[in-house]
Amino acid sequence: MGGRRGGGQVRIVIGDPPFAWCAGEPLAHLEGGDGGLGALAEHTVQLADRIAGRGEPALQRLDRLARIAGLRDGRDLDQGSFDLWCDTLRHLDANTRRARQRIVRKFCLYRQRAEPGRFVFNPLYFARLHPGRMPVIVGPEHVARRFAATEVGNELRAHLSKRLALSLDVGSHAPLLCNIKGGLRGYTGTRLSGGIHVLFKIAGVHDSEGQRPRIHDLRHSFVVQALLRWYRDSADVQSNLPRLAMYMGHVSIVSTAHYLHFVPALAELASDRFEKSFGNLIEEMPR
Fold this sequence. Notes:
11 helices, mainly alpha
């Protein structure tokens, strides 16, 4: 099994003799192989459809495995090549490593259906899960400090001036923050995350334990700030939660609940509202 990226696609090479297929390629366009590979091709296409359902990152993990482990020229995945790939993930968080190892193991298991005896690594090699750290909630004071530290208004105006001077696409679908290396492209999530992390460092934004916000912490912060606004505006929080879920792209409010953090400021506002509504029903017990 191997993988190559070409023209924006991942090419999966599987079987003996090798049988190649590109993600998104119709089954009728496959060439080579004998009757025994027909079922294999069908399984591979079904696998790619399932992987595609999880987005491009899953395909990128398989492609990176193929490149790092040297799966070329008929060499197959084995314990040695798998260990080589795992060594390149040591800088990542254990939960992230485990998620990527799960993608590869699922691929190996799916492949084994068509080619019994092929290598499937033991799940005991999975990185151990650990509780994720709590998000750092960013408030208006943090944003103001960040803007003051970088003069973001001036920087944004300078960026827009350069962008307009180059006569780049200004349509609604064009990226606002972009680079022109290899054509007009928006920054990747990794690059934006790195830039924002540096920005927080310069502005001195961190929690009481010295942890700086991660890029996804801004999503948590958005939800918390929305709840704070609703309580301060005396809005109906419960009726607004489905709207918040829709705005965040969640199918169910259960997913949104993951972002509902009971921070001290929110607890104080909720307590004040409860006291105004039901305080007269509660009698203070004499000591």
